[in-house]
Every structure is written in structure tokens, then in C-alpha cells.
Amino acid sequence: MIKVTDIAYVRFRAPDLDAMEKFLIEFGLVRAARLGTQLFMRGTDPLAFAHVTEEGEPGFAGLGFYADSVADLEKLAAAYGLPVEESDAPGGGRIVRFTDPNGFPVDVVAGQKAPPALPVTRHLVHNDGEARPRRGETLRVEPGPSQVKRLGHCVINVKDFRETEAWYKERFGLVTSDEIEIAPGAPIGAFLRCDRGAAHVDHHTLFPVGTGTPGFNHAAFEVANFDDLMAGREVLVEAGRRHEWGVGRHILGSQIFDYWRDPWGHTVEHWTDGDLFNNETPPNVVGIDQLMGNQWGPPAPPNMGS
Predict the structure, then answer these.
(1) Which domain holds residue 197?
(2) Quick one: residue 264, left, alpha or beta (phi over 0 = left, psi -120 to 50 = alpha)?
(3) Is the pTM of this model over 0.85?
(4) How far apart are CA 168 and CA 190, in angstroms?
(5) Number of structural domains in the chain
(6) Residue 45, burial from CB neighbour count under 10 angstroms (0-12, 13-18, 19+)
(7) What tens digit of pLDDT does each residue of 5-17 get?
């Protein structure tokens, strides 16, 4: 076992890379590269890419995680009898390829060359009832798409929650933040996060949901801040994109959210201001009401993620 440090990217298939790129630019990503029949999109953080589209029939094509080092990657590969390959994706590096119990391709990458960070234009100083640090200056939010920083998490529907949970924990060292029960003693899923010891990480990196049928649920991309999320929302509305849920604030993870569908129906989320946990935060068990509820905002649609 190793302990992955974060989620790296999600992969999709789509028949029209131009149409996907147009949507993703409106969503707030930036082209990293277009190599043959693959489109790579990145955020402002100094990471090679966060979203990959392969030309083909529409569908989910897998996800990737970061290993801490090539040495960890080699250790992982040796434990499961898998090769360590050279990656031909932007940033290069090395890669080990798995297939999880649901048939989803799962990559682990290390040694990528990091590109420079991209400038973030919406650095905003907010006044509130407790503190008013902005004095003698106006606040102006520039119009335009949100500025996606990075991929934050992925939610997958799985055949068997416990089987999938054990598979990811055993190989990648993920730990539980919140386990979800549909009834006492009847777990259906869990918010899993990376284990980086005392370092604080996102409340969740992967959420497997035991629906009985494998499938993609959604992928969530962190944006610069709340105003950035709202400005980007205007761009997507004006472009006539399909909105799904939001704006609101989740209970579990606490993040402000806004969900959209790409041209082929894949759900992608903008989020900001989420919880950060470390090894001093114990796991929790909650009901499904907290999963689907929110602290403010509209109720979840009945077909969320399907």
C-alpha cells in the first residue's frame, strides 16, 4: 500500500473534441494540450491537467491519482505485479494502470513536470460583519468564466460499496471522513479522503456510492472563490448550458456548490470553501438526509447524477 496525495484527473470519451473544449472553456478550464484524439484541460494550479477527453462514444473513461514519488509508484507496481510505464500525457512522468472492481480504469501517476501556475484575476477582499479589511477600495468582479484551480473529487456509482471501499483503501491509503447509511447498520457509501498525516486535505477525494450498477456520478472542480463561482455561472447560463443543482452549501464537506452537465450529460461541479481534515479528525457515520441535504440553497433534484 501507498498513500496517494490527491486526485489528479478524470477521463471521458466524447465524439466531438471541439464541442467539449468549448464547454470546458466556458466552465473555466484551459487547454493544456491536444494530442491526436485526446484533449487535455487544466486549471490555474501548477498541475499538468485535470480533465481528459478521448474521441469516441460518450462515456466515463476513468480517473487518476497522484503518488508522492516515483519510488512509491514502483513500490505499488511491485506489490500488484504491474508495470511502471512512461506517460505520454502532458507533463510526462510515470504511470501505473489499474482496473477497479467496477471496471473503471484507475491510473496512479508520479514524476510529472509541473507547468507554471496560471494567473488568478479574481483576488477579492471581502468585508463582513466581523471584519472589514477592504477600506478605501471598491470591489469589482470581472465578468467571464470561473477560474478552475484543480480537480477536487470524483463520485462513482459502484456495484458493492464495501468491496470498492476496501479496494481503494488497500491500494491507495484512503481514509473515511463520513460514512453514509440508508438505515442504521446499512452503509451505502462513504466520503473518502487522502491520508497525509497531520497535513490538512479536502474532506473528500473519492465517494463510491453503492447503487448496484457501476457508473459515473460527478466530478468536482475547485474555483477561486464564491464571486468567481457566481461570475462563471453567468457565463454558463448565457451559453445555454444545462444546469443541474445549485447554488447552495452542502452539509457534508461544507462547500458551496453549483452543478452543470457537459454536452453529453456528464455532471461537473464548481465548488469553493470546503472543509479540510487531517489525522486528528475521526471518521463519522451519518444518514442519507445529510448527504442529500444542504445548509442553504435549492433541494437536490431526484435524478441527481443519473
Answers:
(1) 6-114+147-296
(2) alpha
(3) yes
(4) 12
(5) 1
(6) middle
(7) 999 999 999 999 9
